[in-house]
Amino acid sequence: MPTGTLTPPAVITTERRAYTVEDAIGTGGFADLYRVSFRDSQGVPCFAVLKVLQSKHASDSHLRDLFFNEIESIRRTQGTYVVRYLDRGTLPRERGGLPFFVMEHMAGGTLYDLVSQEGLLDELRAVHFGRSIAAALKNAHRMHTVYDPDLQDTDGGSTQDLAVIIHRDVTPTNILLDQTREHAKLSDFGSAIQARDGSAALNDRIRTPEFASPEQRDGSSKITTASDIYQLGGVIYWALTRVEPVQLLTKPLGEREWSHSRALKDLLSSMLALNPGERPSAEAVESKLEEIALFAKGSNVPVAIPPLLGPSFSMPRFRLALAVWFIVIAIATYPIVSVLSPLAIQAIESLTELVQNRVPSVSKPQN
Ligand SMILES: Nc1ncnc2c1ncn2[C@@H]1O[C@H](COP(=O)(O)OP(=O)(O)OP(=O)(O)O)[C@@H](O)[C@H]1O
Ligand SMILES: [Mg+2]
C-alpha cells in the first residue's frame, strides 16, 4: 500500500480539473497509485487512477526521468487497447512537489486477479485478450517521435528522431480489465524504453523475472520489440495453464501436454522462440489470433463472451416461446370450444331452416 503521500479526501488539482483522492489501490516499483474521483465536462462523477512518484524518490533524477518516460510512453501508444491517459501534473510543494499522471480506472482488476479468482481461461477468452494486447503492442512498436528528457527543458523534447517503444514488462499484473471483465488493456509503461535503431541495451533490472524473455535474462544482449512478443506469448500460455514462461526454459512448450487448438500451439511456439529473429511481429500476432478466434467461435470452445452470441440465440428462443403460448392457449380454451361448438352448429342449422321455410312463402305466386 502507498506510504501515505496522499490521504483521502485530499484534492489534487491540475490545469484541467480537480481530483478527490478516494483510496489507495497499490504501490509499485517507484510509484504509488490512488483511485480518485472527478466530474467530467457534463458534471457526471467519474473515477480515475492517479499514479504518483513515491516521495522517497523525489530527489532521484534518474527515477524522475523514468517516470516522465512512463508518462510519454503511455501517451504515445494511446489506442483502443492501451489504458487511457487523462491528465498530468505536479503535487504542490507542501505535498512534496512530486510528478503524477492520471489514467482511466479499470474496475475489473488485472489479468492475474482474473485467473487467480476464476481459474484458467478457455481458449477463446485467452485469444481474445491476447489479440487486444497484440494490438496495443502494434501501436507501441511503430515509429514514434523520440521523447528525450534531456531536451525537454530547452525545446520540450521536440526532435525529428524516431524510435519504437518496447514495453519490456508485459505480464498478467500489467494487463487490466474493464468492469465487465470482457475487455483487456495494456498498462504500466514504467519499464518502457525508446529504441532509436529498433533495439536497446538492457541497462536496468528486470521487473518480473518469471515473464522475462531469454534476451532480457541474458543481461549482456540488446533487446528488440521481439522481447514483448515473447512476453505476450508467455502471458497467453500462463492464462491457459498457469505455467510461467520461465518454466518453459527447462521444458519447452513442444514437450508439454496441450489441450487447445493446433493453430494456437503453433503461434505460441513461434512467439516463444528462443531466437528473437524467429518471432512474429505484433501485427502478425494480432491477425493470427483474430483468425484463431473466428475458428474458436464456430467450434465447441466454451462461450466466453456472452454478448457475442446474444443475438443469434434470441430468435430461436422467441419462436419457441411463441409456439409454447399457442399450445397453452389451445389447451386452455379446448373445453369451452368443445361445449360451444355443437351449440353453435345447432344454432346455424336452425337459422338456415328458418330462412328456407320463409323464402318459398314469400316467392310463391298468388293465383
Ligand atoms: N488504471 C488502473 N485501474 C485500476 N487499477 C490499476 C490501474 N493502474 C494500476 N492499477 C493497479 O495497480 C497495480 C500497480 O500498477 P502499475 O503496474 O501501473 O505500477 P507498477 O509501479 O509497475 O507496479 P508493479 O511493480 O506492481 O507492476 C496494478 O497491478 C493494478 O492492480
Ligand atoms: Mg506493474
Key terms for this structure?
367 residues, Phosphorylase Kinase, domain 1, Transferase(Phosphotransferase), domain 1, three-stranded antiparallel sheet, 13 strands, elongated, binds magnesium ion
Notes on the protein architecture:
Strand 9 and strand 10 (about 185) form a beta hairpin. This protein folds into two domains: about 1-105, Phosphorylase Kinase, domain 1 (2-Layer Sandwich), CATH 3.30.200; about 105-325, Transferase(Phosphotransferase), domain 1 (Orthogonal Bundle), CATH 1.10.510. The strands form four sheets. The chain has a six-stranded antiparallel β-sheet, with helices on one face. The chain has a three-stranded antiparallel β-sheet with strand order 7-8-11. It has a two-stranded antiparallel ribbon with strand order 9-10. The model is unreliable at about 155, about 300-320 and about 360-365 (pLDDT under 50). With about 375 residues, it is α+β, with helices and mostly antiparallel strands. The longest helix has about 60 residues, at about 305-365. The protein starts with 10 loop residues before the first strand and ends with a helix. The protein has helices at about 60-75, 110-120, 125-140, 150-155, 215, 225-240, 260-270, 280-300, 305-365, and strands at about 10-15, 20-25, 30-40, 45-55, 85-90, 100-105, 145, 160-165, 175, 185, 195, 200, 220-225. It is elongated, with a radius of gyration of 33 Å. Bound molecules: adenosine-5'-triphosphate and magnesium ion. Adenosine-5'-triphosphate (ATP) binds near residues 83 and 174.
Described by its quaternary structure, the protein is single chain
Number of strands: 13
Query: What general form does the structure show?
Result: elongated
Write down the CATH topology of the largest domain.
Answer: Transferase(Phosphotransferase), domain 1
- Helix fraction by DSSP (H/I, runs of at least 4): 40-55%
Measure the end-to-end span: 120 Å
**Which spans of ≥5 residues are poorly predicted at pLDDT below 50?**
153-157, 298-318, 360-367
